[in-house]
Amino acid sequence: MSYKNFPMVSRVIFGRGSFNQLSEIIEPKRLNTNAPFIFFVDDVFKGNAWLMSRIPLSYQDKVIYVSANEEPKTEQIDQLVEDIILTFKERPSGIIGIGGGCLLDIAKAVSIMLNNDGESKDYQGWDLVKNPAVYHVGVPTISGTGAEVSRTTILTGPERKLGINSDYTPFDQVILDPELTKDVPKDQWFYTGMDCYVHCIESLNGTYLNTFSKTYGEKALELCKDIFLNNTLSVEESQDKLMMASWHGGMSIAYSQVGVCHALSYGLSYLLGIKHGIGNCIVFNHLEDYYPEGVALFKQMKETHNITLPQGVCADLSDKDFDVMIKVALSLEPLWENAIGKNWKKTITPETLKALYQKM
Ligand code: NAD
Ligand code: ZN
């Protein structure tokens, strides 16, 4: 048996207000005055002096606002990389992503592509990246995806939605400042928080589970129950705990995999552009055959917070549309193997998936 040797985030700072230390953290990494720091910031923060005034800009440093309305695409990454190469005399000293999973994934992908030839679609998959990425820093402003800690950056390419999974993907530095999540809208808080919950359920119920993943998954699940079902927590406690739940949930899948919900949700996202958090909620709501206890608890959480999910998202789709989603979902073999086992193809057929999609 040969075990995988995983990299982790090398440095992390946690605490309310720790974002104020951004300058002292990154400044020693400045290569020279022509090598800028590029800050990719969710455009929801445009004009937000509370956050923006704390981003330290010197020399050629630049803020680039990016919308998180759509999930990152390979073309978008290639364009951002080209713009940086054409604009600056030197490669950046560092790339800093400030936002949710979208912005964190953009920062990771751009930092990889600045040091690797070709197009980002060529690196979608496992361990295809050859050169180390530019120094990159992640600052989550919404909690749940685990993108701050994971070894992947999820991109939608011309052929598939798949991550660039590599040893060079994890951040060199993460800043966990739960205060940054204070203005997240309630529904979005729930959807992205449920991504974390689903990571725990899929990891803890998967065949890839080992003690490393289990310990992280159990802690994250305990935190999720506390956050989403215990209404005695203060707002601050809830923000702090969800930020750490996201971290632990992400760590739990590092050595394991996600499962049925993520496979189906990738299909929805690829065809319909439905975003990850809400997509997972739409799918997970119908997975009682696969995760009976997890789904029951999910429904309880949904009721507690008065969340209404979209219905009938697949109602008007053609057979061809279903085939596209089914193809995307079935191509994610490690997810199915984790969820069902080595013989997953015996029970997971295009018909099984179509019946599930038709319920959504
Ligand atoms: P997001 O980046 O999609 O943002 C969701 C919404 O919240 C956006 O409208 C954004 O503007 C808003 N928002 C973020 N922070 C805010 C704040 N502090 N105040 C107000 N609004 C705020 O959110 P997400 O759910 O964290 O990320 C989803 C993305 O993450 C998807 O692209 C998915 O593929 C990716 N993902 C990546 C990994 C990974 O390991 N790399 C894991 C899971 C999901
Ligand atoms: Zn997820």
From TrEMBL:
It holds the Pfam family ADH_Fe_C. Residues 191-293 form the Fe-containing alcohol dehydrogenase-like C-terminal domain. One of its GO terms (molecular function) is metal ion binding. InterPro entries: ADH_Fe/GldA, ADH_Fe_C, Alcohol_dehydrogenase_Fe. Residues 10-178 form the Alcohol dehydrogenase iron-type/glycerol dehydrogenase GldA domain. Coiled coil: none annotated. It comes from the Bacteria. Keywords: Oxidoreductase. This is 3-deoxy-alpha-D-manno-octulosonate 8-oxidase.
